[in-house]
Give the backbone structure.
Amino acid sequence: MREQLLIIGAGGHGRVIADIALKMNTWKTIAFLDNDKLIQSSMGLEVVGKSDDMLAFIDDWDIFVGIGNNALRERIQSKLEVAGAHITTLIHPRAVIGEQVELGVGTAVMAGVVINCCTKVGKGCIINTGATIDHDSLIENYVHVSPGVHMAGTVNIGAGAWLGIGSIVSNNVNITSNCIIGAGAVVVRDIVDAGTYMGVPARRVY
Ligand SMILES: CC(C)(COP(=O)(O)OP(=O)(O)OC[C@H]1O[C@@H](n2cnc3c(N)ncnc32)[C@H](O)[C@@H]1OP(=O)(O)O)[C@@H](O)C(=O)NCCC(=O)NCCS
């Protein structure tokens, strides 16, 4: 653990990430990188350079990728990993994490989240505000679980999937990689083909 944390991306998602980091009270300095030259500070924290120059910072800073888009977050985190950056995991102090839960590096767990026992969450995931993930589930790398999603027990979510706000996944259901689940959808059967699914019960639309 270093004394300073650098968040890549000073947009809306990056600011929520900074808020978690501030509440963790772990780093003396927290700052952003962003490619938009017009943003010089965000949430009172300094933007110290461009995201494109991130590798120049990896010797002295813990790093976190604060970008909401799954594919872009994966691309940036993968580059950082190859370069040997120290990527951290962020957990809001008001999240409830069960016993024998594993969380990968670069994963953010936001306020009000509950992750029940024996669940594994991969790297680079976003477990957004107030989401719940029940026992014995597997969330693969670079998944975004949006605010207010509820997943019952023994659910598997494939890499790169995006579960929209307020969606529900019933118990023992598997969702394949790179799926989009629309806001408010209810997934009651396995999804084996990547695509966009909406409605109750969720059906493929694209
Ligand atoms: C599923 C989703 C990705 C589709 O986006 P899109 O491809 O741009 O779809 P559009 O907005 O063009 O809508 C296409 C049609 O689907 C309908 N639709 C869109 N989202 C829907 C949803 N979640 N449930 C049911 N119908 C939906 C629209 O009303 C529209 O219907 P119409 O053709 O009869 O007018 C998006 O609507 C969604 O649900 N996103 C989740 C947002 C979210 O969770 N944000 C949280 C970020 S932290």
User: Anything to note?
Assistant: Helices lie at 12-24, 70-82.
